[in-house]
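Hey forum,

I'm writing up a methods section and want to include a predicted complex as supplementary material. The small molecule is flavin mononucleotide. I've pasted the protein sequence and the SMILES. Can someone with a working setup run it? I'll credit the forum in the acknowledgements.
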Amino acid sequence: MEDMELVTPRMRFGIWALVHGSRAALQDPDEPYDASWVRNRDLILEAEALGFDSTLVAQHTINPHKPDLAQLEAWTASAAIAALTSRIEIITAIKPLLYHPAVLAKMAMQIEEISGGRFAINLVNAWNKPELERAGIPFPPHDERYAYGHEWLQVVEPLLRGEAVTFEGRHFQLDGYALRPAGIHRSRPRIYVGGESEPARALVADKGDVWFINGQPLADVQALIADVARRPRDGAPPLRFGLSAFVIARPTDEEAHAALQHLAALAEKDTALRAVQKTNTDPESVMAKTMARFPRVGSNGGTGAGLVGSYDTVASRILAFHDAGIETFMLQFQPFEAEMRRFAAEIMPRVRPSVAAPRRVRRARS
Ligand SMILES: Cc1cc2nc3c(=O)[nH]c(=O)nc-3n(C[C@H](O)[C@H](O)[C@H](O)COP(=O)(O)O)c2cc1C
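Reply by user p_vandermeer:
Happy to help. Structure tokens for the complex are below, copy them as they are.
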């Protein structure tokens, strides 16, 4: 990278909460459909105990795969998770079109207080048209949604810092609006942005702290980081980077690829659902175009990041992404609980050396 030195902070691991059940295939005898509060609560408590740093609670008001399936509500569940956990970061997604920025900033600051300074928002711009349209909420074109989201974040960010906000915009007008309490634990909750299009990149460079990238091959991730990391930040600290990825780790590469084939075969059973989902998706969504480029299981790029293989293979690929600038790996598994435990037991020690146990991983060639 030309004139920019990228210093990657300590590696962090997170898990996607199962707000709409299994990530790779919905009809899996090893993981019956379960998006309940109790399952998600227990999952996140266990992730925290296993040493995961973060959890991402996606926001969907109706189930994006099949509207008659259960769907966990992100914000109320996150408040409860905040009260039950003590260390893990809670990142909750928000679609600006659903909440006025002052109301949302207030909710975020309340969860920040409940969690003792462990809360973050993930700004996402919506792709599932029926979620809004069937509730009578307008679903403007892609770039207009981003313009709305950009203005929304211009209001939310200073409110989160406790500033008195006076704002005269196209969509929002505020007059000396200030939220209290503010700044009890740190200056404000962290702001993640998930989205790959040009307006998403401009938004995160302008007002975000961390850019979430959909799972995809290392070279693509390097190019995306290079593009966004060089953008002006108006005095803000350098952007950080997160990667979504579905992990299949086994003792050998062969076993991992067999497990991938097994999940891919199960995912075939959801073909009809996926066809409906495709018609519901905004065709301008760059995320959808990225995912159409390679076969995968899992959402948000899934196995496209290549974290499929032996323990050493997966560990070496994680290290390569980390060297490229990825700080937070937001992970999916299936069956989730069992594979999350395996990741904690086999992969974490390989990539997170303690002083007493230096890096054990053998780097794979590809
Ligand atoms: C890590 C990550 C998490 C996301 N979480 C959600 C979510 O919770 N709800 C949602 O509707 N979309 C989610 N999205 C998708 C975004 O809404 C965004 O609309 C999508 O990436 C299309 O935007 P793009 O054209 O900028 O890529 C997420 C995307 C990423 C990368």
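Some notes you might quote in the supplement: The chain is about 40% helix and 15% strand. Residues 315 and 348 are 8 Å apart (CA to CA).
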